[in-house]
Amino acid sequence: MTRNLYAALLGATILCSPAAFAAEVKIGVVGPLTGPAATSGIAMRDAYQFVADEVNAAGGIDLNGEKTTLKLIFEDSASRPEIGVSAAQKLLTRDNVDLLVGDTFASSVTIALMDVAASYGKFVMSGQPVSSEIARKVESDPKRFANFWKASWNSDAYAKAVFEAVEGLTAAGKFSPEGKKIAFVFEDTDYGKSNTEFAVPLFKEAGWSEVGHEAVPLGHSDFYPQLSKLRGAKPDVLVSIFTSVNSGVALTRQIKETGLDSLHVAIYYPLRPEFHQGVGADSEKMLWTPMLYDPVNNEKHKALFDLMESKGVAATGDHAQGYCQFAMLVDNLKRAGTYEPAKLSEAFAQTDFDCYTGRFVYDTANHTPKIGPEFLPVAVAQV
């Protein structure tokens, strides 16, 4: 071998060696890519990847003393706890990810994988899940879940928003409940149950009586039996809680068909554009929460829509939440300068991150973002 050839081969070896490439942090993401919540899960996936692409295009971030790019590895939970746990185990073992986001959407999946993830000693963040049971687990064992943080509020935020909206309309003379009777139709998941759990006491303390408490399976679409009972009970207010848009479309249409004369207040599903496309005028006058993304009337939201549209993404509310949650995670990684769990958790405890949808500041007792006009707003809107 000639001296020049040897030098060329040696140079090629150095260029191709791992040290010649930028460092990489592997982030595992568990969320529903199939099943009844797939539309939201896919939007969250795309928003996370959008932020990661922005970061990588800018050269990455400084972690552990070197420039580092982000590699996202996605696994499907199908909104089912057992599948989500298996996906998390695969990411933590076979893929050996450096940190985990899970679940991006389903509270029941997050609750199931919290214990599993804690045993691996990695940092874990959830995405949209709001069940207060998640926060309770953190508070009940702060040492075990020291490195677990939520990226969304607790379900009592929705309960408070619904209650204050109904009471506010009543006080303003825009709504006149005859018997102060309320009913709930909700999906039989941690999400649906926890929202109902916090709303019922608020209304009862204000003199309301609960005349309907109907739990249905995730993705349920035949509400005629429930509506038949509710027509007899004559609730002034009907609160529905679904993560499945198909369930919301079916219930809203069937309310119109059966002539149930109640103020309909919906939690979550009307933020999806396909809900309004599916029901048309049948949703007229219904209330819904959270109205967290309004690119038509909100300049900051419009700026996010334009940013994502410039790369071919028509952003929805799920995209907006995914973008800001993952951008907040990246900001905390930058401030921590590492993905080491304890140091990253310290950064989360000191979070003060302003994004398009609101300002992230944490309640460090339960690792949950604060809500309110100066933090993350949980607004109620009317169709």
Walk me through what this model shows.
This protein is α/β, with parallel strands linked by helices and 383 residues long. The chain has two domains: 202 residues, Response regulator (Rossmann fold); 134 residues, 3-Layer(aba) Sandwich (Rossmann fold). The chain is built from 13 helices and 16 strands. The strands form four sheets. Strands 2-3-1-4-5-6 form a six-stranded mixed beta sheet, sandwiched between helices. A six-stranded mixed beta sheet has the order 8-7-9-10-11-16, sandwiched between helices. It has a two-stranded antiparallel sheet with strand order 12-13. A hairpin with a 2-residue loop joins strand 12 and strand 13. The radius of gyration is 23 Å and the shape is globular. The chain starts with a helix and ends with a strand. InterPro entries: BCAA_transport, Leu-bd, Peripla_BP_I. Belongs to the leucine-binding protein family. One of its GO terms (biological process) is amino acid transport. This is ABC-type branched-subunit amino acid transport system substrate-binding protein. It holds the Pfam family Peripla_BP_6.
